[in-house]
UniProtKB/TrEMBL annotation:
ANK repeats lie at residues 200-232, 314-346. Residues 517-558 form a coiled coil. This is Cell division cycle-related protein res2/pct1. The gene is res2_3. It comes from the Eukaryota.
Length: 623
């Protein structure tokens, strides 16, 4: 742009008036006349440290708007028009910025169509998109600010506006914003969706396909973009999509291919097909897997079978390129798809010659190009396989610098977010480990309690067996005493006996209904011994039962307290949760699923969000 000229531009979807002063872009927003205070201070040659202090003391204290994201040149602190003039006068640059301050916005038509060149002039602009880029238009032919009658010449040409819109599409992948851009441009008869936007003749569709912007590709095709358009090297958007790894990283190549597959038969100026370009991508360090991914998907389509053996200007097929690069993955995929293995190039060499490494001259012909390109960015403004025919323009440099800033900012932002998330994850992991340890202790306590419960059940069963045996013996004793005419001892009588009472004295004279007195005496002695043994055993069992029940109650209360502390629940609610908690612990595999434990604990907390305080543990009483 010529210094001192005022033209319109669009940055981050915001229309502005812009002029270059001392090599610095100075902007004035068309919607509210706000100007960028940072740019004004730059024109005044104030270094960055002093600019920051001036902004803090003089600008940020009043009405202002700080823009940090979006297009690089648009960033800065924006202030009202009057404050902008005062700031420029204060630092001695009001005369330099006078054209921006003094021209009348009311007299400038806001409808972009009113600033279009005449039809003949527009046709000339459109014709330029089909040819290699020509040198910049001399400053004398650019629009300058003048009288109200020449206001049309003060704004950029419609071609520049369209290019700005298409570059905005490239710099953003927000479907709603992109659709809005294109719908606004639909009202312009001269809008060219296939306009060349860089020095290599690439269109917005080339850029979108290369950067795996699927939404952008679909919108451009929907708006009538020509999927068969080529850049100055004859490369189609489909070819560009396999020359970088973005579609491999996003796993989006199948969708791109479906949108652009009708151009699969096309070749570039070196007669290379999309298969040639995919194979050559494997020559760049770190892109072998991406190249294999592209080749495998392409050869799986029937439409690509027709170009398997296509030869480029050197006579090489995609298979011979893969063999020359010693890429077994690419070669195997092409051979399985049916590629001919004995096709010779114009030097008379086939893939066997490349395997034997007798083609050093031809290999060196391609290797320097591939080596040099391996150090370039993912998507540069040059073709991957051809020399750069034109020097980069200032516009191209600005675009590359802006993309670099965006990538760096995203890298820094997501890097800090990742660090923060990792710290949060570490904290959650530590909490989860602590809860897991508590649950493990609880599980062991439950197992111990189950063992004690089993022992208690066995002791109770033994007690019942003894009671049954005593009852049977007592009934038999009663029948014998009744038969002998003796007073039958009752349970109350037995309760009054102490350990020194001779029970045998009460039972010696029982008349047994038998004539064999010695046999009866022997049976009686045995019965007495059994009764005494049973009573002693019963007493010992009663004592053991009391001890076990006391231990069981104490252990049970300890487990309840532990579960209540872990789950933040009152103790009286724990009984309802023991069964599901036990089932959850028993169902866990050896390698504990932490996510499942977290979900379980959340569920326990939601179910147990009670307001009353935990109850005191009940005191155990022996039975």
């Amino acid at each position: 742009m010529v210094e001192g000229n005022i033209y319109t531009a669009v940055y981050s979807s915001v229309p502005v008036f812009e002029m270059i002063v001392k090599g610095i872009a100075v902007m004035r927003r068309r919607t509210d006349d706000y100007m960028n205070a940072t740019q004004i201070l730059k024109v005044a040659n104030i270094e960055k440290g002093k600019r920051t202090k001036i902004l803090e003391k003089e600008v940020l204290v009043g009405e202002h708007e700080k823009v940090q994201g979006g297009y690089g040149k648009y960033q800065g602190t924006w202030i009202p028009f009057n404050k902008s003039k005062e700031l420029a006068e204060r630092y001695g640059v009001a005369n330099l910025l006078a054209p921006m301050f003094n021209f009348d916005l009311v007299k400038i038509p806001m409808d972009e169509q009113q600033t279009l060149p005449q039809p003949e002039e527009q046709e000339k602009e459109t014709t330029k998109t089909d040819n290699p880029p020509s040198p910049e238009i001399p400053p004398s032919k650019k629009a300058k600010l003048g009288s109200p009658d020449s206001v049309e010449a003060n704004t950029m040409t419609m071609t520049e506006h369209n290019r700005s819109v298409l570059m905005s599409i490239f710099l953003s992948d927000k479907p709603d914003q992109i659709r809005e851009f294109l719908e606004q441009s639909d009202n312009q008869e001269s809008f060219i969706v296939d306009m060349v936007i860089d020095e290599q003749g690439n269109t917005a569709l080339h850029w979108a396909a290369s950067l795996a912007r699927i939404n952008t590709v679909e919108l451009l095709v929907e708006k009538g973009a020509n999927i068969a358009c080529t850049n100055y090297a004859g490369e189609t958007p489909l070819m560009r999509s396999v020359m970088v790894t973005n579609n491999y990283d996003m796993q989006s190549f199948p969708r791109v291919f479906e949108l652009l597959k009708s151009t699969v038969h096309m070749t570039d100026h070196k007669k290379r097909t999309v298969l040639h370009h995919a194979a050559l991508t494997g020559s760049i360090q770190g892109r072998a897997e991406a190249a294999t991914y592209f080749i495998q998907h392409l050869v799986s389509k029937e439409v690509c079978k027709l170009i398997l053996d296509a030869q480029d200007s050197l006579g090489d097929t995609a298979l011979s390129i893969a063999a020359r690069l010693e890429s077994t993955g690419l070669a195997d995929a092409l051979i399985k798809a049916g590629a001919t293995q004995n096709t010779q190039n114009h030097a008379g060499l086939d893939i066997q010659d490349y395997k034997d490494k007798v083609t050093e001259d031809i290999t060196m012909e391609e290797a320097p190009s591939s080596s040099a390109k391996s150090s370039q960015r993912v998507f540069s403004n040059t073709s991957l396989y051809s020399k750069k025919p034109y020097a980069p323009s200032q516009r191209g440099k600005e675009i590359v610098a802006t993309v670099q800033k965006i990538v760096d900012a995203l890298d820094e932002e997501y890097g800090s977010q990742l660090t923060s998330k990792e710290q949060e994850l570490q904290a959650v992991q530590e909490d989860l480990n602590a809860v897991s340890q508590e649950l493990e202790k609880t599980r062991k306590s439950l197992e111990e309690r189950q063992t004690q419960s089993q022992r208690l059940s066995e002791a109770q069963q033994k007690t019942r067996n003894l009671d049954n045996a005593l009852q049977t013996g007592w009934q038999r004793l009663e029948s014998l005493m009744q038969a002998s005419g003796r007073h039958v001892l009752t349970q109350q009588d037995l309760d009054r006996f102490d350990e020194h009472t001779d029970i045998d004295a009460h039972l010696d004279d029982i008349g047994l209904p038998t004539d064999d007195k010695d046999l009866l005496d022997q049976q009686i002695r045995r019965a007495r011994a059994k009764v005494k043994a049973y009573e002693a055993n019963n007493k010992a069992l009663d004592q053991e039962i009391m001890e076990i029940e006391h231990q069981y109650t104490e252990k049970e209360m300890q487990c309840k307290r532990l579960i209540a502390a872990c789950c933040n629940l009152p103790i009286d609610k724990i009984d309802d949760l023991v069964e599901p908690l036990t089932l959850a612990i028993e169902s866990d595999p050896p390698d504990l699923d932490l996510a499942r434990v977290i979900g379980f604990m959340d569920k326990i907390r939601r179910q147990g969000a009670f307001t009353e305080p935990p109850m005191n543990p009940p005191k155990s009483t022996p039975h």
